[in-house]
Amino acid sequence: MRPNEDEVRGKIDQATGTAKEHIGRATGDVDLEDEGAGQRISGNIEEGIGRARRKTGEALKEIGKKINE
């Protein structure tokens, strides 16, 4: 199956957070660096939740197929 909305949003947040971290570090803006780290971490969590939801859905579909056999 293809990634769900949570996984995609999580990946976007991870990339945005990483960029903010690097920009903050390069410019000496500690607040931006911290904001980026937080966004990257929350994106990682969101992606993980999305992946778990997708895997659960896939497992339920497989169980449904086996029941119908």
What's this model, at a glance?
With 69 residues, the chain is mainly α. It contains two helices and no strands.
Question: What key attributes describe this structure?
Answer:
69 residues, rod-shaped, 2 helices, 0% strand, single chain, mainly alpha
What is the alpha-carbon Rg in Å?
Answer: 17 Å
Instruction: Show unreliable segments.
Output: none
Q: What is the domain total for the residues?
A: 1
Largest sheet: none
**Cα shape:** rod-shaped
Ends distance: 22 Å
The count of β-strands is 0
| Beta fraction | under 5%
Helix content class = over 70%
Structural class: mainly alpha
Query: What's the average pLDDT?
Result: 95
Number of helices: 2
SSE run: HH
Secondary structure: elements and pairs:
Layout: H1 5-27, H2 30-68
Helix pairs in contact: 1-2
Tell me about this structure.
- This protein is mainly α and 69 residues long.
- It has one domain.
- The protein has two helices and no strands.
- Helix 1 (5-27) packs antiparallel against helix 2.
- The protein is rod-shaped and about 60 Å long.
- The two termini are 22 Å apart.
- The model has no long low-confidence stretch (mean pLDDT 95).
